[in-house]
Amino acid sequence: MADEDSRKRLDQFVDAAFGFAVTLLLITGAEPPRDLADLRAALLNLPSSAAAFVLIVLFWSSHRAFGRVTPVRDASTTLLSLAVVFTVLVYVYPLRFLMQALFHWLSLGRLPGRELIDGLGDLASLYQIYGLGFAVLSGLVAALFACSVRLAPTPDLRDEGRSWRDAWLICAGTGLVSMAVALLPLRAAPWLPPSIYSLIPLAIWLRGRAIARAARRSAVAASDPVAA
Fold this sequence. Notes:
Shape: globular
Number of strands: 0
Helix content: over 70%
Oligomer: single chain
């Protein structure tokens, strides 16, 4: 088992890596504005950068939650945390591209992003790359929380680890489904692959309802075996 100092150093390293990912997200491909026109053009990227920033923070906050739920670590959690760092630094690029293309479309061409996509073939490739990256990163976070279920010292923390694990498994599956849909012809519905991600909250809510119903049935069976 890793000692307390090693755990803290690893968590600090992961935090720093996420901070570097945000830096890449904001400055990659950007040149310092030379005049007011350049500044205005740079500011047009703020909506897409903000949306991408929220997703990066979501993954970061989940790793912070993992650290709280799992005070005891082992070699597998260290390797998974390092894999998360590597993947998120790669994931920044398709995330940035997708958000710029999405906000260009949502703004009816008023925001930058048109130069990133040259036809439906490029759009499909971007959906596929992003979906794979999202699925891999979500799967790694789910694997971390699976370790929480094994290592957490109390039943409450193990239950919380299961909730996080299942939520990120849903995210990973959604990324794979979106990627698979992007393999189909997009001409009729080019908006469909990214729209699939909007189903994640509903799937997590349904999972919570199913867990609650199972818990109620167990409670009834425990209190009244004859009625069960």
